[in-house]
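Suppose a colleague, Dr. K., hands you the sequence of a protein chain of 250 amino acids and asks what its three-dimensional shape might be. Before reaching for any lab equipment, you can write down a predicted structure in token form. Begin with the sequence itself:
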Amino acid sequence: MTVALFLILTIAGALAATAAAAFQAPPSIFGGGLALAFIGLAGAAGATASAMRAPDDLTEPRTARGPTSPPPLPDDGRVTRPAFGGMWLAAIGAFALLGLVPLISLARKPGRASRTGWGAGVRLVDENNAPIPHDRLVAGAIETVFPQGATDLPEAPAVLIRGDDGGYRAFSKVCTHAGCPVALYRHASHQLICPCHQSIFDVQDGARNISGPAPRPLPGLPLDVDAEGYLVARGDFDAPVGPDDWDRVS
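The predicted structure, expressed as tokens, is then:
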């Protein structure tokens, strides 16, 4: 039964990895399925080799005997030979499906689905999911905000800044160079600064990149105030969040 269990693990892992690639699951799921497939295949091969090895104390008597036939191969417990062979074929076939993964990737149209959680009417909240009232910040203050109910999305964080005129501006906190958090604000010059590679963005000019390696401005988040006096978004970011890559649609 040991070999059969390893073969089942191989089939499950290979099918899981193929499904993860087809449905764009996180890389960790694809990698886990692939690891299980390899572990199962290696374990099945090792268990088969161990079962077929003759014991060290095997001796052949020298007494005269008639024609003999070789002993049968191990039947691996309760698994019959036809079923055992079928499981090997199924495991190899499932493993071969992984060859479709490159074709799945090539067939996928360019364009990365971005989940920010922002949309028209979504309230701005702090890290504790508490809504942000319109009078929360003083002029020149900055705070990291999230869409209500979606504080865990990696592309959701935004920086909220209150200008000297009392108005608010909000921009993606994810730097367009390497994805670092843009966490520094210089009020005197109205500049957001990425601490990783010193990219500088002009808040009064739509977070335009004025220095450093960032290739484009920080995406802006349109704001409004709802009937209860809380800050809300009027839609999603006005540009893709984060660094550019080969499959991003601008």
